[in-house]
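Re: the 387-residue chain
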Amino acid sequence: TLAQAVNLMREKGVEHLCVRDAQDRICGTIRKGDIVNLQHSTSAVLAAAIGDSATVAELRLIYSRLPLYVGALSESGARTAVITSAITGTSDAIRRKLEEFVIRELGAPPAPYAFVALGSEGRCEQTLLTDQDNAIIYQDVAADRQAAVGEYFAKYGARMCRLLHETGFNYCAGEIMASNPRWNKPLSEWRRYYTGWVREPDPQALLESAIFFDFRSVCGEASLVAELARHVRQLLTDNPAFLPHLAREGINYKTPLGLFGKIQTDAADGQSPTLNLKSPLRVIVNLVRLYAMKHSLGETNTIGRIHGLRQANVFSSSFYRDLLYSYDYLMGLQLRTQARALRQGKIVTNAIDLAGLSAIELNTLKNVLSQLGTFQSKTRYDFGVSE
């Protein structure tokens, strides 16, 4: 263990140790500095450092350590839930610290509010390649205060998103952020948004609104988010025809498997074959969200939803195991690939180089991809979606 390595260095008065492989050959070294860096990147240390930070520059430095920690967790075989929890915990702590900075600059909020995470952030499933997906919900106020309250939260949203960007969280290309006036509204407006999406669904609106069905409170009054969630659950109960519309959008993905189970890629001749893992992951995320919405499950995390749906006997034990394994494998592969790219100084993407997989990894990936069709067929049947 690392602790034994530190004790041996101390005992022998050395700064590094040689590492031997199974054949007793020296295959590398580990330095005391490596261990110190790793210790500095553990979740508890990161959280403490965030709490003590006084500037955005300090937060950016802390956030830059996160890939080292994620890489260590990934290479040690940690489960996906452990890794994404570490990423989410660090990201949330940074947001709450930035909230302090913003309020110190703008003054106390004039009304209760919630800074809301959406999409993968809302599901606590961030990877090392993520951008901002957030919004602000604030309490409705009397007519004579609406302009002033709206102006405050417009400044709050703009400032918070800018500070997040300066810390290392990229802006959302689609501008689904609290800095966009459209996504910075009082609770009554948010109720109206969801009512429109559910009661009058159209293909384009469904594509735009899907991200908003995974939301949670990060800062402020969680009760506002809970109240909106109750409104959404009631809407879904009263409008059961909405879910088949949403299901149709989630089962159009064509599994990238050709004849004899070969994975199809977009690589040109001479290029290394790659597969974008975000697409097959989205199939599972969308499927699980659908069932969670149908059965009024309050959980937002995909793994938590899968467990909850099994406990409610919505999924059979075999379907539950297949779904959980498939999601866990794809997410784990994505996280390991991203952590490795960062260590090697490469651009981080959602694409995985198939040539870099072992035969076992490649066969497992093929099996997981082949299961997607089964998942989609079940969704099509359960939600009454025609071909």
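The longest helix spans residues 80-106.
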